[in-house]
Amino acid sequence: MMSLRRCTIAIALVALAVPLWADSSKQTNENSPSNQPTPTAWMNNTAQSSRVSSGSSSNIGWNGWGVRLGLADDADQVLGGAHFNLGEFAKNVRFQPDVQLGTGDDFTTFYGTVPVYYRFDTATPFTPYAGGGIALGWIDDDRADETEFEIGGKVTGGLEWPQANGQAFFVELSLGFGDIHDATVMAAWSF
User: Fold this and answer.
1) Hey, is 59 helix, strand or coil?
2) 187: cis peptide before it, omega within 30°?
3) Which run of H or of E encompasses 95?
4) pLDDT value of position 26
5) In sequence order, what are the beta bridge partners of 136?
6) pLDDT over threshold 50, residue 20
7) How, if at all, do strands 146-162 and 127-141 pair?
8) Beta bridge pairs of residue 138
9) Where are the alpha helices (DSSP H) in 61-172?
């Protein structure tokens, strides 16, 4: 299997290429000068739409979903999954559960995480966030022919930024505690 370092480099290259590809694949009528917002306008609109207004204390509800790709350590795996933006239950505090399937290192894993993230206000379209949550996992060990159910905790930090098409892209690092992945590096897109 590919070393963790090579996998990390591959994920980083994909993470950088996909937003560029998505921006270049717009329809030609969207590329006309009259239909293109200024960079400042789309950054402000997207950044504001992903936050609760200062007068609101709760924004719980369906706010979209996205795909996640990444790598995990212990077991060394390639991960794929989805996340669900269920809004903010307090100013800048987002509830965003996720599920992910991992393969590699003679294991198959399936995790569901119930995290809460605090999103830091910045004067830029880039939004750093930090948080944590509970991870529930199903682990199939091919070597020992065993299947286990595990529970653990995760601490996560990341950086999110808007794309020109109104979607968001983010990268994050999670550290696990308990019998779950020790660390994961993810790149994700929200729709």
Assistant:
1) coil
2) no
3) strand 93-95
4) 41
5) 112, 151
6) no
7) antiparallel
8) 110, 149
9) none
154, 130 in Cβ contact below 8 A? no
Cα torsion through 151, 155, 160, 166, rounded to 10: 30
In the three-class reduction of DSSP (H, G, I as helix; E, B as strand; rest coil), residue 27 is classed as: coil
Look at phi and psi of residue 94 and say left if phi exceeds 0, alpha if psi is from -120 to 50, else beta.
Answer: beta
Q: What is the pLDDT of residues 27-51, one digit of tens each?
A: 444 444 444 444 444 344 444 444 3
Residue type, 109: T
Residue 149 vs residue 179, higher pLDDT: 149
Q: What is the pTM of this model?
A: 0.69
Euclidean distance between CA atoms 83 and 118, whole angstroms? 16
C-beta atoms surrounding 56 within 10 Å = 11
* Confidence class for position 22, pLDDT limits 50, 70, 90: very low
* Domains of the chain as residue ranges with CATH: 4-190 (2.40.160.20)
CA distance 36 to 90: 33
